[in-house]
Amino acid sequence: MPKVTYITPSGEEKVVADAQGNLMTAAVANQVEGIDGDCGGVCSCATCHVHIDPEWAERVGSATDIETGMLELEDSAGENSRLGCQVELTPELDGLVVRVVGR
């Protein structure tokens, strides 16, 4: 499974090797600052909001309509915004870098 680098709201880089599940579950399991995952991964809270590094945006893919609707409620949403719970980790995402928005 992939290695993912999370850049936390305080600027710390937290590298998670062999990340499992999706960006949210891997972050929660590894105590990444700023990722709460309050809804448990059902795309209904946006407490796992991340900005995908622009170099990775195409490989990660775009948000679904439901995810886009949740992101529209976020002040800090941008064109590379995704909800971590909606990004499944695959070997193709090895080396992925994301910036955690936090609250």
Overview of this structure, please?
It is a single chain. By secondary structure, the protein is an alpha+beta fold. Helix content is 17%, strand content 19%. It has helices at residues 23-29, 57-60, 65-71; strands spanning 4-7, 13-16, 49-52, 81-83, 96-100. A five-stranded mixed sheet has the order 2-1-5-3-4. A hairpin with a 5-residue loop joins strand 1 (4-7) and strand 2 (13-16).
Summarize the structure.
This protein has three helices and five strands, in the order ββαβααββ.
Number of helices: 3
Q: State the distance separating the first and last CA atoms.
A: 28 Å
Shape: globular
Biggest beta-sheet profile = 5 strands, mixed
Helix content: 10-25%
Contiguous low-pLDDT stretches (5 residues minimum) are: none
What is the chains' assembly state?
A: single chain
Summarize model confidence as the mean pLDDT.
Answer: 96
Query: What's the arrangement of strands in the largest beta sheet?
Result: 2-1-5-3-4
Structural class based on helices, strands and sheet pairing:
alpha+beta
Q: List the helices and strands in order.
A: EEHEHHEE
Strand portion:
15-25%
Total E-strand runs: 5
Radius of gyration: 12 Å
